């Protein structure tokens, strides 16, 4: 639920310990600025250039958003999204 951080005034740059995808303090990830730009560029390019659909007539409401606890918290079932055509 990434939206839980909306309007909280929390950012990911290592000051707010509720959200530290790049770590914090002296050993914070030195690739933070590059990583931040690349993730935005990659995701925006995929959304901009392709139309997407879910496999097997799954609707967004049916998606299993279950989580699996580990070193990081990730989806129990990987997201499968199919690019159907370039826009
Ligand atoms: C979305 C992309 C990335 C994420 C989420 C990420 C996340 C992290 C995290 C959590 C750490 C450990 C920080 C800590 O120990 O507190 C780390 C360390 C590190 N990251 Fe990244 N990283 C990303 C991209 C990059 C990139 C693009 C580079 C280099 C070009 C990079 C280079 C490093 C290095 C060298 C360390 C070790 C820093 C140290 O131990 O002093 N990372 N990263």
Task: Describe what this molecule looks like in 3D.
Helix content is 21%, strand content 15%. The chain is built from one helix and four strands. The chain is globular. It starts with 31 loop residues before the first helix and ends with a strand. The structure holds protoporphyrin IX containing FE. Protoporphyrin IX containing FE binds at residues 21-24, 27-31, 34-35, 39.
Read across the widest sheet, the strand sequence of neighbours is: 1-4
**Tally of helical runs:** 1
> What is the ordering of alpha helices and beta strands?
HEEEE
**Which class do the helix and strand fractions yield?**
alpha+beta
Helix content: 10-25%
Q: How far apart are the first and last residues' alpha carbons, in Å?
A: 28 Å
Tally of distinct domains: 1
Largest sheet: 2 strands, antiparallel
Q: What small ligands are held by the chains?
A: protoporphyrin IX containing FE
């Amino acid at each position: 639920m990434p939206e839980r951080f909306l309007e909280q005034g929390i950012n990911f740059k290592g000051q707010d310990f509720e959200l530290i995808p790049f770590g914090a303090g002296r050993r914070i990830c030195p690739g933070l600025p590059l990583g931040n730009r690349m993730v935005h560029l990659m995701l925006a390019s995929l959304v901009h250039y392709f139309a997407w659909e879910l496999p097997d007539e799954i609707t967004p409401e049916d998606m299993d958003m279950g989580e699996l606890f580990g070193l990081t918290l990730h989806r129990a079932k990987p997201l499968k999204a199919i690019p159907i055509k370039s826009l």
